[in-house]
Structure prediction request, 143 residues.
Amino acid sequence: MLRAKTRFDDSFKRIRNQDSIYKHLVSTLHFPEKDISDMLRSEVVYAVSSFDRFIHDIVKQGMVDIFMGNRPITGSYSNFSISLNQLQSIRIAGSIPPPQSIFENIIIEKHKHLSFQEPNKVSEALSLIWNENYKWQKIAICM
Prediction:
């Protein structure tokens, strides 16, 4: 999970850098704000994209941790479906690639078309790794 948080933090450093460039262009170089306002929109898009990636990363890592027995199983995790073909791939996996790597690829494949931007979608995703009924309230308290 630390790698996901580091990646998320790095993304926001880049967003802050982009914002500094925008401010410099407006305040120091006197660019008209309307001519470069797309920079601000791109900051918002990048922030949402970074959050989406963060959720993808922590859910994937959490599910692999459950698969490895390092995290408690959730109801949503128990209902995560994989094909018999995928199960067979995991079952016959050796040390290269290890079963958890195959499972990780299955998660990536199943989630790659999903977008975790809406609160209910984020909550659904987190249910795969976290047995908490009031996720947003818990997150708000921690923040």
Remarks:
- The two ends are 17 Å apart (CA to CA).
- The chain has eight helices and no strands.
- The chain has a mean pLDDT of 95.
